[in-house]
Amino acid sequence: MSDSDSSDGSDDQERLEGPRLWVLLQVNRWLFTATILFAVFAILVATSFLELTPLREIVENQDGIEFLFSAFIGAIITGTSIVVTINQLVLSQELGAVGQQRDRMQDAMEFRRDVESTITEDASPPEPAAFLFELVDGVEERAKELEAEMEDERDEELREKIADYVDDATENARSVKDDLQDAQFGTFEVIWNALNFNYSRKIYDARKIRADHGDSLSEEASEKIDHTIDTLQLFGPAREHFKTLYFQWELINLSRALLYISVPALTVMAIMIMYVDGSALPGSTLGVDNLVWITSAGFVVGISPFVVFITYILRIATVAKRTLAMGPFILRESKRDEDLG
């Protein structure tokens, strides 16, 4: 397929590469949190070397410790309560009468039967990673069947387009399958690899081939294209379902993390207010006033719940933004065809 009719196969991987996305989607959230907190701590300590009013003088004259850390107590309690409340509202969608739960089960089983009609397995796997693996493998098999059907095609341009389309689909499918083999739901690997499979573009390319060469395609070849599109269409709902489950999973983890961190943070805030004043810890260490060390550390502990919240929400928001449209719609920046304008 020419450049004007298909995305480059490398586009599927390039769209999730780059330092910004690597930080947002791949870096461990606790490492990311620790890095941010350390950077804040280093900036606060380094600021003490500037020609500014010494912290000890501010604390002695303006009671800055109490003013600073008392505000954290209300912020931590309020913020944690709001996040936990939002989490409960999201999870409340999982609650329902037995009739609603039965309808959900029937819809899930119907979707599994639809998938099983396109894959080689008689029963689709229950694990999300294995389920997506079999679905992507089904796309690869349908693409190979389409290529085999075109071996005797006399239209050289059509045969070349089909061959390039199949190469692009199989290359992307194999890359995603390799990474899905060891992926475990609960980690980000399942969603990461689901994002790496560019099914929306493949649906468009298959439909474009059929629209441009409908008169040249045999009935069997047209049927193979339809089967490929049908299999690709199943990938979208599967990815969205697992994405929703992942979001719920992460919101639970976020609530638990904030609950674990909030009590120690509140304790540190109370210690700073009750026992630290302008006369505490006289002297300096490494050329920095000891009061600067302890105040900077206390500030970092105070903002730690907020930073944890940021690191979790950044990943959720990034995934949500990149999966806003389901189906043959591409919202992100990508290589455009001449006929897409």
Characterize this entry briefly:
With 341 residues, the chain is an all-alpha fold.
List keywords for this structure.
mainly alpha, disordered C terminus, 12 helices, membrane, elongated, 1% strand, coiled coil, transmembrane, disordered N terminus
Would you give an account of this structure?
- This protein has 341 residues and is mostly helical.
- It has one domain.
- It is 72% helix and 1% strand.
- The chain has 12 helices and 2 strands; from the N terminus they run H-H-H-H-H-H-H-H-H-H-H-E-E-H.
- It has a two-stranded antiparallel sheet.
- Helix 7 packs antiparallel against helix 8 and helix 8 packs antiparallel against helix 9.
- The longest helix has 57 residues.
- The protein is elongated and about 90 Å long.
- The N terminus and C terminus are likely disordered.
Span between N and C termini?
19 Å
Count of discrete structural domains? 1
Apparent shape: elongated
Please write the string of helix (H) and strand (E) elements.
HHHHHHHHHHHEEH
Number of helices: 12
Low-confidence stretches: 1-14, 335-341
Report the sheet-strand fraction: under 5%
Structural class: mainly alpha
The neighbouring-strand order within the major sheet is 1-2
Rg (C-alpha, Å) = 28 Å
Mean model confidence by pLDDT: 81
- What is the share of helical residues? over 70%
Number of strands: 2
